[in-house]
Amino acid sequence: MARRSPVVYLLHFAAPYKHARHYVGYSELLAERLAHHAAGRGARLMAAVSAAGIDHTVARVWKGADRTFERRLHRRNGAAPLCPVCSGKAALGRAQHVGAGAR
């Protein structure tokens, strides 16, 4: 059985989907949730991104964060300042690539 560990995570899209370039989510089982996103299940935005064939990367993870923190990030209206990929601070090899073809 997978160990539950609450996290808030930021996904960076390889290309914009309409207005969206990022997705912020919460999970206690991150690997399973990322598999759902890659398969086009779960969040409506991630299903559309997957159907459009847009790859995404786990750009940032806040370990131990709760849903209140996730809501605070959503209310910011713009995840780009939080994204190390957008700010050019992402270390090569550290981001976890999740392709639309990884279904």
Relevant terms:
single chain, 103 residues, alpha+beta, four-stranded antiparallel sheet, 25% helix
Word description of this protein:
The protein has a four-stranded antiparallel sheet. It is α+β, with helices and mostly antiparallel strands. 25% of the residues lie in helices and 29% in strands. The protein is built from three helices and four strands, in the order ββααβαβ. The radius of gyration is 13 Å and the shape is globular. The two termini are 22 Å apart.
Secondary-structure blueprint of this entry?
Layout: E1 7-17, E2 20-27, H1 30-38, H2 44-51, E3 56-63, H3 67-75, E4 96-98
Antiparallel strand pairs: 1-2, 1-3, 3-4
The tally of strands reads 4
H/E series: EEHHEHE
Q: Please give the radius of gyration in angstroms.
A: 13 Å
Overall pLDDT score: 85
Give the overall form: globular
Structural class determined from secondary elements: alpha+beta
How many DSSP H or I helices?
A: 3
Percent helix = 25-40%
Strand fraction: 25-35%
Q: State the end-to-end distance.
A: 22 Å
Summarize the structure.
By secondary structure, the protein is an alpha+beta fold. The protein has helices at 30-38, 44-51, 67-75, and strands spanning 7-17, 20-27, 56-63, 96-98.
